[in-house]
């Protein structure tokens, strides 16, 4: 993660805690999960309107980043599935925008 106050391993461990099928000691999915964390941070930074990579991503967005990474993981293989019903199981995913709704943009002078 770019410029965060916490190392990527802390974010990765937090993410793994939210994915029951991946044991914390299992490193086989780490590259995939790290790519989701990086994409999630990019999404937050883009929504915040950061000027460049030298600006530190505030730690208050940690759980939004983890939640977005989890969203990417949950949607992996679902091919953008909006809902799914199988027997008594109904699945509807939060949208990307719903997760980012509390992330506000930084005003920049032009």
What's the helix-strand series? HHHEEH
Radius of gyration from the CA trace?
A: 15 Å
Structural class: mainly alpha
Low-confidence stretches: none
Biggest sheet architecture: 2 strands, antiparallel
Spatial strand arrangement across the major sheet = 1-2
How far do the termini sit from each other?
A: 27 Å
Query: Total number of helical segments?
Result: 4
Residue share in helix: 40-55%
Average pLDDT rating: 82
- The backbone outline, from C-alpha atoms, is flat
| Overall number of strands | 2
Strand fraction equals: 5-15%
Describe the structure in your own words.
- The protein is mainly alpha-helical and 110 residues long.
- 43% of the residues lie in helices and 7% in strands.
- The chain has four helices and two strands, in the order αααββα.
- It has a two-stranded antiparallel sheet.
- β1 and β2 form a beta hairpin.
- α1 (8-17) crosses α2 (30-48) and α2 crosses α3 (62-75).
- The longest helix has 19 residues, at 30-48.
- The chain starts with 7 loop residues before the first helix and ends in an 11-residue tail after the last helix.
- The model has no long low-confidence stretch (mean pLDDT 82).
Keywords:
mainly alpha; single chain; 4 helices; flat; 110 residues
Helix and strand layout, with pairings?
Layout: H1 8-17, H2 30-48, H3 62-75, E1 83-86, E2 89-92, H4 96-99
Antiparallel strand pairs: 1-2
């Amino acid at each position: 993660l770019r410029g965060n106050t916490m190392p990527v391993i802390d974010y990765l461990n937090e993410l793994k805690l939210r994915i029951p099928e991946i044991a914390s000691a299992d490193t086989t999915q780490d590259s995939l999960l790290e790519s989701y964390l990086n994409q999630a941070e990019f999404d937050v930074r883009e929504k915040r309107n950061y000027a460049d990579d030298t600006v530190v991503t505030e730690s208050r967005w940690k759980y939004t980043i983890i939640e977005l990474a989890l969203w990417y993981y949950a949607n992996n293989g679902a091919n953008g599935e909006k809902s799914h019903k199988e027997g008594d199981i109904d699945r509807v995913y939060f949208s990307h925008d719903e997760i980012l709704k509390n992330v506000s943009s930084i005003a920049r002078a032009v």
